[in-house]
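Batch manifest, entry 17 of 40.
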Amino acid sequence: MVKSTIIARVADGLPLAASMDDEQAESMLSEYKSQAKAIFKKLNSHSEPMCSIESGQYCLHYLLEQGVCYLCICEKSFPRKLAFSYLDELAKEFYMSYGSEVEKTNLRPYAFIKFDTFIQKTKRIYEDSRTQNNLSKLNEDLRDVTQIMTKNMEDLLWRGDSLDRMNTMSDRLRDQSEKYRKHTRQLNIEMMIRKYGIPAAIILGFILILYLRYKLF
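Output type: structure tokens
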């Protein structure tokens, strides 16, 4: 299920709204909320618009829309399609309510904290197993998550990994290039076997016969 939600401005990471979590959830998720803030600092106009970041027993999903980042912390078992459908609903409502105010330079942190009312209402809907089942059946109406980038939090925070689209494209091209090289190498080996395999087998067989004759006679 969705454990917590944070909405921030992409340009500077300013938190605009968040779910009001109880004390127990706040204590359990403090580390992951710190990770969310670190993610906000890494975002820019070139960042991947949708991403899932795995961290321990949770997964942090974010969606970028109109200069705003919508991020939720979910249990790993919670379907990604539902997570991004949830974020999409928040993005549409938030833009309708506050879209014209997001870029104001005098905004204070959590200026739109009243949006928590809609967050909590939407969260309850997505926690309902009947709703989840119904949404899961509407695959054509949900986002295609197969192409969404997946990252590991350790790589992102400690190994300097990036959320930029160009870096992601570069990684994909590098992976494809490596696959191509392996495939080409395999084809070359197969061609060598086809070309020299039979003559080599004959020569080896002849050498083996000579060796046996020498040993036996």
